Amino acid sequence: MKSSTYCAQDGTAQYEAMIPALRLHPATRHLYLLFRNFSWLVGFSELEGALMKTFGIVMLLVLGLTFSACGGSNNPGTINGNWSASLTGSQTFAFTLSLTQTGSNGLSVTNLQFNSNSPCFATPTTETGSFGVGGNFNGNVTGSFGLNISTESPADVNALTLQGNVNGNTITGTWGLTGATAGCTGSGSFTITRM
Asked: In CATH, what is the architecture of 81-194?
């Protein structure tokens, strides 16, 4: 009866005689005592009920941790917004624009405003863009980026092409300019940042 005196203080002496495993570790004994009162709800014996409930709690914790790792934001990052561009190289350009993703690879470009005085884009322009989402990790969107800006004048068509990659609030890459207007050719690199 050594085990009866060992656990008589917390009322588990009667259960230790039935389940010798409870003598191995006090935490197991406390879990058993916690869940034993609910075993009649599902028709299991007290030990089966305790084991099933313990398994259920462990599974809920595992599922909770798994789903929390899948992403904690319901507001994913996008390319949508106002941006400021700086182009350097054989020529220098600066402009602001608004971008909105349309469809899987489409990009709507509005409010294009050149900040530099260049004869290459003195007339109205047409803009087309593309954006291929590469990933969205906790609101940090990544992917490929393309933008074409061309003048509308049929006589003097100048075309600026940008190709690069989006990484969060920055787009970087290379640009090329071809045109009919004198001095409207060149290439270089660009950085576009979210305003």
From this structure: Beta Barrel (2.40)
